[in-house]
Design a protein that fits this description.
Layout (H helix, E strand, L loop, with lengths): L2 H7 L2 E8 L5 E6 L3 E4 L2 E7 L2 H8 L2 E8 L6 E12 L2 H11 L10 E13 L7
Antiparallel strand pairs: 1-2, 1-5, 3-4, 4-7, 5-6, 6-7
């Protein structure tokens, strides 16, 4: 599946699920990811629960529900593979992928994930 094309063509709601080292699960609304290459996505994260969770447990799942009728979308199974903290580098990557939002003083991290598996939103198939 061409994730770059998919996220460029589809609007909807994204949910990132993470858990800490003890297995305590969290789910949070997240924007579409930055598609770095065919196997790598990145999310801009503040120092909140999702970020803390992937620091102690690198596994995550991202569910994207396409806007409109029905139950279309994808589920992505992810493993954290790196992190960028330099504000200039983060801004450079973000500016290539989407319109810029209002700047914030809060510390941001660009967290990279390898895509392990891609599945349709409902059912067992691959998109």
């Amino acid at each position: 599946m061409d994730l770059k094309q998919y996220f460029a063509e589809n609007r909807g709601t994204g949910i990132l699920a993470t858990s800490d080292a003890g297995g305590n699960v969290d789910a949070a609304i997240y924007a579409r990811p930055y598609v770095i290459d065919e196997d790598t996505l990145a999310f801009s994260m503040l120092e909140r629960r999702s970020f803390a969770n992937v620091q102690s447990n690198p596994k995550a799942a991202y569910m994207f529900i396409e806007a409109g009728q029905g139950h279309e979308g994808v589920r992505l199974y992810l493993t954290m593979s790196g992190e960028e903290t330099d504000p200039d580098t983060i801004e450079k990557i973000k500016s290539r992928h989407q319109p810029r939002r209002m700047p914030t003083e809060a510390a941001r991290h660009l967290v990279y994930f390898k895509v392990g598996q891609t599945r349709v939103l409902v059912g067992e198939g691959e998109p």
